[in-house]
Amino acid sequence: MVGEPDAPPPHVALNRRYWDATAAWWVERGEREWERREPVWGIWSIPESELRLLPEDMTGLDAVELGCGTAYVSGWMARRGARVTGIDNSAAQLATARRLAERHGVALTLVHGDAERTPFADASFDFAISEYGAPIWCDPYAWVPEAHRVLRPGGRLVFMGNHPLLALCSPVDGGDVGYRLERDYFSLHRLDYSAVADDPGGVEFNLPFSGWLALFARVGFEVEELLEPRAPETATGTEFAVPAEWARRFPSEQVWKLRKR
Predict the structure, then answer these.
(1) Which one of 16, 53, 151, 205 is most buried, by most CB atoms within 10 A?
(2) How do residues 30-87 score in pLDDT, each as one tens digit?
(3) Shortest CA distance to 92 belongs to which of 31, 33, 27?
(4) How would you classify residue 154: left for phi > 0, otherwise alpha for psi between -120 and 50, otherwise beta?
């Protein structure tokens, strides 16, 4: 019918099924992170005092978490004074988020939806953040312009996700990250793990650095800072298919801090 919105791309539904099916695995982590008063970030739990992803005082700010999962980041922002909205593709994840927000007495607005096409009005927020939500599970050519749309002029977007080098060294069969290049750099975009034989996943996304920078410039974001956190010396073993020894030698994560022009 003319005038109806386009249907979402297939990866949105595929990732929704994946996250609904695996949501129970994340409950314990969500409970642990909700207990924290000092945030830690990423797969290596880098402290907020080192990365500074959040404003220290968020009093009066309207903030949104894109791909909030169990919404512990939303909880941290609310405790700093923000009015917080979280959106996530998984109803099962949001059920955990609502339960934990109620347990901790934190008021959040939680929305079941897709960060590539949110229901929010233009210029609704002062601050947007995503830790391993939209940055890896949504197409950057869709979610980054959407984040820009819902931010007010001068608003900030901060996001953390897999480093492009990690994507290049991740085997196509979903195995642990290694020391050889597994895919082309310049065509880096869509990484589909949904059909791997062992522990199938969802559809992930990334870009080469030149692609990220071109996208930010085209959309209207200025880059304030790029961080490449490394695994601490105390880290051991393998986390989310990333050996700690590898992540001390090479960047496994990227953090972008942006401001809307």
Answers:
(1) 151
(2) 999 999 989 999 999 999 999 999 999 999 999 999 999 999 999 999 999 999 999 9
(3) 27
(4) left
Partner residues linked to 128 by β-bridges:
64, 157
Taking alpha carbons only, the member of 155, 160, 159 closest to residue 58 is 155
Long-range contacts of 138-144 (CB under 8 A, 24+ apart): 138/66, 138/67, 138/114, 138/205, 139/9, 139/11, 139/190, 139/205, 140/205, 140/206, 140/207, 140/211, 140/212, 140/215, 141/215, 142/116, 142/117, 143/66, 143/115, 143/116, 144/215, 144/216, 144/219, 144/221
In the chain, where do the E strands start and end? 40-41, 46-47, 62-66, 83-88, 109-112, 125-131, 151-162, 190-192, 203-205, 221-227, 238-239, 242-243, 253-260
Mean pLDDT confidence for 143-153 = 98
pLDDT at 1 over 50: no
How, if at all, do strands 221-227 and 83-88 pair?
A: unpaired
pLDDT of residue 37: 85
- Among residues 52, 48, 22, the alpha carbon closest in space to that of 33 is found at 48
Rounded CA-CA distance 203/191 in Å is 6
What is the distance in angstroms between the CA of the first residue and the CA of the last residue of the chain?
Answer: 36
Cα 1 to Cα 36: distance, rounded to the nearest angstrom: 49
Nearest to 135 by CA among 205, 239, 227, 87: 205
Q: What is the pTM of this model?
A: 0.96
pLDDT for the residue 199:
86
Helix or strand (DSSP H, E) at 146:
helix 140-150
pLDDT at 2: 44
